[in-house]
Amino acid sequence: MTINQIFRILLGLYPAQHQVLFNAEMTTVFEAALAERRRQSGAAWVRFVISEFAGLIAGAISAWTARLFRTAGPVVATAGASVSPIGLPNDVVEAQQRVDALVSGMVDAIAHHQFEKARLYSGQERDARKQLREIRRRRGLGE
Amino acid sequence: MRHVADQSDAGNKPLSEAVSFILSSLADRPRHGYALMQDIETLSGGRVRLSTGTLYGALRRLLEDAWIERFEQDDTSREKQAYRLAPAGRAQLRRELARVEQLTRAIHTRLKVHERLKIREV
User: Fold this and answer.
1) If DSSP codes are grouped into helix, strand and coil, which group holds residue B69?
2) Does the beta-carbon distance from B81 to A33 stay under 8 Å?
3) ipTM exceeding 0.90?
4) What does the pLDDT look like over B61-91, one tens digit per residue?
């Protein structure tokens, strides 16, 4: 088993949403860093690999903790937390609901191993979140 | 769970070293994940090297708190996704700078007092 394969297995420890959003990127970053460290001494390379694997395990625990303890919803928790049902303009609420719906769709797609569909949701969710930010800014609600 | 920015206490709590370096690295221009990792190592004089897990854990929290933004960059590099500092993140970085400056002034003041007392004793 190669270092890259172990890295990919450890990425599987993360919550599904995190995997959809970041796995490809994290793999690219890890491979670039690994290639750079290979040019260094053996000891530096071993330290790097140990620190990467430990970082992944700690990161996965932290991501799961964040997911389990957030009540407003998963990835969009901050926006969700600041959105109170009382006194918020309708367009803000609607934009937030759209983000939430897309995140749910993404999770559902992942659960059914429809990764292409999940990627599509992920792209739409990014745009929807951008729109939400824009609406909140226009309404003077801050980020 | 520790949030990067709890809405109720944002601005009061010191930022973690990783978050401070990430925000500082994005302060001048957007960067990809690997560029961030390299820049943080340079900024810290080689002292801080974030692992991929640590970096993306922090990026996820910063995105959730809208301190940074993620966008697709059209360039030839392997990494398409890049990150930039959002206004809320920049404001937070300024607050952190003010906090650190105040702390530095306090340390300087007390060290000078200590040195003066030492000179008198001699």
Assistant:
1) strand
2) no
3) no
4) 999 889 999 988 776 566 678 999 999 999 9
Q: Which tokens sit at A103?
A: 């995140």
Distance CA A67, CA A14 (A): 10
Query: What is the rounded CA–CA span in Å between residue A14 and residue A17?
Result: 8
A18, A22, A142: residue with CB nearest B88: A142
Task: Answer yes or no: do A55 and B7 touch at CB < 8 A.
Answer: no
The answer to whether B19 and B56 have CB atoms below 8 angstroms apart is no
What are the pLDDT digits (tens) for A33-44?
998 888 877 888
Q: How far apart are the first and last CA of chain B?
A: 51
- What is the separation, in whole angstroms, between the first and last Cα of chain A? 45
Amino acid at B81: Q
Please state, in angstroms and rounded to a whole number, the distance separating the CA atoms of residues A77 and B80: 25
Question: What is the spatial distance between Cα A38 and Cα B83, in angstroms, rounded to a whole number?
Answer: 27
* Helices A115-138 & A90-111 angle (0-180, nearest 10): 160
Strand-pairing partners, residue B71, are B82
3-state secondary structure of B117: helix
- pTM comes to 0.66
| CB of A16 less than 8 A from some CB of B | no
Which amino acid appears at position B31 of this protein? R
**C-alpha distance from A136 to closest chain B C-alpha (Å):** 12
pLDDT in tens, A85-125: 334 667 776 777 777 778 777 777 776 777 788 888 888 88
Strand partners, B85: B68
State the helix-helix crossing angle for B33-43 and A16-38, rounded to 10 degrees: 60
**Sequence letter at residue B32:** H
In chain B, count of helices (H) and strands (E)? 4, 3
